[in-house]
Amino acid sequence: MSDPSAPATRSWADLSGPALDAALSERSIAVVPVGAIEHHGPHLPLRTDALIAEAVAFAAVTRAAASGLDVWLLPTVSYGKSDEHYWAPGTVWLEGTTLLEQLVEIGRSIALTRARTVVFVNGHGGNVMLLGWLNRELRRRFGLRSFSMSAGAGGAGDGLEGRPDELGQGIHAGFAETSVVMHLAPGLVSPDLPPRNVPERIAGLRHIGFNAKPVMFGWTSDDFGPTGVIGDPTGANAAHGRELFERGVAFVADALAEIDGFVYG
Amino acid sequence: MSDPSAPATRSWADLSGPALDAALSERSIAVVPVGAIEHHGPHLPLRTDALIAEAVAFAAVTRAAASGLDVWLLPTVSYGKSDEHYWAPGTVWLEGTTLLEQLVEIGRSIALTRARTVVFVNGHGGNVMLLGWLNRELRRRFGLRSFSMSAGAGGAGDGLEGRPDELGQGIHAGFAETSVVMHLAPGLVSPDLPPRNVPERIAGLRHIGFNAKPVMFGWTSDDFGPTGVIGDPTGANAAHGRELFERGVAFVADALAEIDGFVYG
Amino acid sequence: MSDPSAPATRSWADLSGPALDAALSERSIAVVPVGAIEHHGPHLPLRTDALIAEAVAFAAVTRAAASGLDVWLLPTVSYGKSDEHYWAPGTVWLEGTTLLEQLVEIGRSIALTRARTVVFVNGHGGNVMLLGWLNRELRRRFGLRSFSMSAGAGGAGDGLEGRPDELGQGIHAGFAETSVVMHLAPGLVSPDLPPRNVPERIAGLRHIGFNAKPVMFGWTSDDFGPTGVIGDPTGANAAHGRELFERGVAFVADALAEIDGFVYG
Amino acid sequence: MSDPSAPATRSWADLSGPALDAALSERSIAVVPVGAIEHHGPHLPLRTDALIAEAVAFAAVTRAAASGLDVWLLPTVSYGKSDEHYWAPGTVWLEGTTLLEQLVEIGRSIALTRARTVVFVNGHGGNVMLLGWLNRELRRRFGLRSFSMSAGAGGAGDGLEGRPDELGQGIHAGFAETSVVMHLAPGLVSPDLPPRNVPERIAGLRHIGFNAKPVMFGWTSDDFGPTGVIGDPTGANAAHGRELFERGVAFVADALAEIDGFVYG
Amino acid sequence: MSDPSAPATRSWADLSGPALDAALSERSIAVVPVGAIEHHGPHLPLRTDALIAEAVAFAAVTRAAASGLDVWLLPTVSYGKSDEHYWAPGTVWLEGTTLLEQLVEIGRSIALTRARTVVFVNGHGGNVMLLGWLNRELRRRFGLRSFSMSAGAGGAGDGLEGRPDELGQGIHAGFAETSVVMHLAPGLVSPDLPPRNVPERIAGLRHIGFNAKPVMFGWTSDDFGPTGVIGDPTGANAAHGRELFERGVAFVADALAEIDGFVYG
Amino acid sequence: MSDPSAPATRSWADLSGPALDAALSERSIAVVPVGAIEHHGPHLPLRTDALIAEAVAFAAVTRAAASGLDVWLLPTVSYGKSDEHYWAPGTVWLEGTTLLEQLVEIGRSIALTRARTVVFVNGHGGNVMLLGWLNRELRRRFGLRSFSMSAGAGGAGDGLEGRPDELGQGIHAGFAETSVVMHLAPGLVSPDLPPRNVPERIAGLRHIGFNAKPVMFGWTSDDFGPTGVIGDPTGANAAHGRELFERGVAFVADALAEIDGFVYG
């Protein structure tokens, strides 16, 4: 399974059912990219999160397969839980319960194969907690080993690192995400970047915040201004985006290796 | 809107929210491909239906846009209602109610834009009745004009025409579908085609049947044999597949034109 | 079981539980009429669809029993999926999901008897796709053989044949349906028939249409005018209604015979 | 509206939508019989509860209309919440949530007419609490005045009075119910009546019991023996049944009059 | 288990899982208080029903344990089905379906222990029918013996006896309930008692009424006036409240003894 | 509102509806403790999480009120999302969807008062992601400002700090939680503490882990050994528990102050 010249066989759905059935074993890892189709400011495409999740997952699966892991990439779940951007025309969002049920059923189907492990590579911060919830459903109901991670290298939100002056709040269409899309799909990024929109007052709070702070709060993206941006896209560039992308791929590939050897307890 | 050199702008999710918002009008048509990831015999890839729906929809939207229609392609809904193949490892299926709710919510988001029309281009026979139901939900709840059609040229099932000796029952992984995949993705078709599997007794019935017969019946694909094929893939070829594909694209493009001018009553 | 003088024993619910249990065998066929209570123009009763479904099912079961089939008639499900007439006072409609769940549970109960076959005889076009979906649920979940058919002789909508100048669109309260109610319940038909209301423009379309055309579309009956009629009731008469009714009964009875001998594959 | 020679106009669904719309006023009362299709011992038909509910409701509506009330009879909801008899072949039962949702939707449709009052005439003890719950849903959500009552004269269970030696526990297929069916449908009652089956120990309890006792308890009918009877059908006779039936009709008709004049507060 | 000096061990959730597991047997009875947080006029606290349910259940369990019963008190379900008071700020209510599902899941967990019996001690009239429904769910689905009763001594509503001139309608924040809260939590009762608010016209009706009358009706508490009181709190006093409370405790304790010895049939 | 001598008025449900209505303003903050009833090893009570959430919330609300905040404490939601302990007798758990819906409905009721802010103080790590999801529902659907935080001082899981040799994995019934219960309810802690049970291999992983690590994974507590403990309770003591408790109270009180002044953007 370590032949890097056969990436096509890494696609679950490229195979026929019997061929997949023959290929899968208890060691197989099913990887499902999960994205979103949502407003990302006036400069990034609506499919930013689906694009990043799919690109990172594809590259990481390819790399992991090349290193001998028995990984399989499933079709991307493009539509996500984007209720925080429901107000913005173009956003196409699912209720959390609908997305959760869809993913539970995808897990249920995977559980009927020999594969015992499923991994969700996620491009959208708004999906993170749903995926954490999902992991436990799949473990309890179907006995799967289920993992979720962001397509970036970080542990929260979309996992993409921002600029220091984003104050840890470059979580949506900011420096990092803009840079990554510039790298992956430069033609889809508008040259007119919107201005910095960092909720500085929140950044200065001790407890309340977006990630890594101990008090979570409900918000929709129009709570912070009309552009829907949270962060600072100015100065974003493809070179930085490439670096972030590579870091994300390395992280996911490395995590897949860790998952391969994972045992509870 | 008739500039054929700008196909990228035909992708809903390639645009930013504000750019899409500016581009859409009451005349805009949102096109959503709907597929399935399901067992298609030992010779066709699991993503056959998603592949065909997406390929036909993309080509038809491109053609329709070139002829001046204001059409927009949304990301494919890859996972479908494949409960008839639930028994076959590799099938990844959603409960009908989950898929219906997902599509209702996609329609709800579209209804919040200026676009008033949505079209589902479907690659999977098992989705057909759900989409008919869906059209009415979107009409009643959100006032949308909602249409569904098969990615093939016919009116039932996946709409792909079979061989005469399939007796109108080449509905799954048979001559037509195999030919189309040979055209679209030859590398994904196994050269070892499974034998003909046509439920001849059913073909000889007067009332009960798969399509176009007046009595519908519940079945799962293993009711007709172990391969899951219903039809006869032998003799399938890319040339015929190309012809069917082109016919499907022409049909969908032509239907989009009809939809563009559609008025009730 | 071929004694035509005992039609009462053809009623599932006329028997006691133990008597029914003793009478049923693996060959038994449970028949469930499904109707609707909905606006049918200013001239037909709201229960038109329930009336026709029940009358046809009763007569067909009686005839089938007389010819030796082990058929059983269950109480009519009167309220249907009439969301297309939600706007018209008097319509009493169920959400599709509620009707589907009700019918799944009816099937579940039937599956706990010795009978392995269930047949839905349907009087309402708006139920057709739901019943097709239902058949598969009952097959997959409970292993039943499940069939659905229209109470008329046709294959789509309510299955009643219209007049040629209805252009295939006499689907609701038109020539055929009005004639059948004139035959079955002449006292319930208003002598003041509403005028012809045929969506001629749609009839002229190549792809989009009500039945037998390849593009389905969402509509509510007020999309075509204030009467809710789709078709042409003028000239309807009981004699023609009788002929249509007899044809429907013959069709259902014949279909029941086919079902009796049905084997998959 | 007090012409007793026109009972047909008392049927909601016999009228066309516009005719009904013209006939209804704020004083109109919509009456919905609710039954069950469930095991009633070896001697009574499965449709006992639907039969009684419909017969009583029809007679009471006729009588009430004759006395000048603006009452309307809707089609019977035949299938009820019979989970206590789920174990007995022939029972066709709905989950409580499914029945509740169906009745809420029926109420919703009624609320879209001029009628402001709905009455559920119930033939099945197992529906009682669901209907009490339902009344409040219809009041709060749609502003309806909603009432429920048993088709018998009593206040609990199916409301039919039993024999003294049934110890207040003749609640299912016992003396009263058997007598009523002997009156209404003598041909459907088996001459071989099952023996008395009264849970005497429970009758002797101070707190726990079926009706009118302060502690409710969960049971299924097989908890009390294999026949599913709770009570004593021996000695049941049509004459007594007629008396009970007349009492039930008088009760419902009288209650309808009270409802007609009902004001809150 | 009859040591009255160890009341703490009567609390299910005070024990560790293994300690509880060791303590439970087939004879164990799990008691769940169910209340409501809802408007109780201008003089009683919102948590009146939760307060009474918990206080009665605690005292009754203590007494029952002292007499040798193996009873266990679970944490109170404070939020109930208070849709009749939805209009009053401060009411915190659950949809009936949400509360039912919650209680079914609580029963499901109890069914996974050795205990086979669950008892719901209820402080809120609006929960009564839901609990009756619940009992059957727990019996059918999990084989539990499930009982429900009011925390007062009566059999309907909240079971607290009123004053004669409340005409059997002192069902909410009237003489009895006000007295009990004066006894249990005098500091929470406003000295300014609202005036008598008894729907006298309804009291005079023959069929329609709140409890013990044969016709149930839907109402919200603002149907009877702006205070939300139904009854007459004037003259309420702690001495009477104490008597009622003691009567309620005695009733529940006695009922628990009956439950301990309960056998079906 | 800053009179510390009136803590009783800090209880939402101790007041009558009208009194609460008069007391609430747009500045009011509704605080809802959320716990769990679940296995916490052989030494801690099942209600550990509910106990801590309630105790911390009560103390913090009292302190915040004393400093002039307009905070109100609602009744504790005792039963939580404990699916990871479903296997252990005594655990009483709710499906996530049931708990989420319950909390959404609690928020809906709060939104009908003048209060615009709701805070969930959580004692159970398994509720964390559900509460994050909930915050957004309440923001989007009802316009509330919604916050959630752990009853401990940390940002993840139950927020209680462990011992260094727990390697960041003392997340359930370990050193911190055991110490806090020793402080709050010493009589409920078994003197026989179970041995250390730290999944050291997981601690050594780079990506996968319980909190603060970038890869989340599905687990149930029996995945790590038979005691259900994850951490090391040995050495736990009330003095440390008191310190942790005070830190938690200070954290929540401080967070409430921050919430009081919170503005978006």
From TrEMBL, chains A, B, C, D, E, F:
Cofactor annotation? Zn(2+)
Which InterPro entries does the record cross-reference, listed alphabetically? Creatininase-like_sf, Creatininase/forma_Hydrolase
Q: Which Pfam families match?
A: Creatininase (PF02633)
Q: What keywords are annotated for this sequence in UniProt?
A: Hydrolase, Metal-binding, Zinc
Entry's family note: Belongs to the creatininase superfamily.
Q: Which PANTHER family match?
A: 2-AMINO-5-FORMYLAMINO-6-RIBOSYLAMINOPYRIMIDIN-4(3H)-ONE 5'-MONOPHOSPHATE DEFORMYLASE, 3-DEHYDRO-SCYLLO-INOSOSE HYDROLASE
Q: What is this protein called?
A: Creatininase family protein
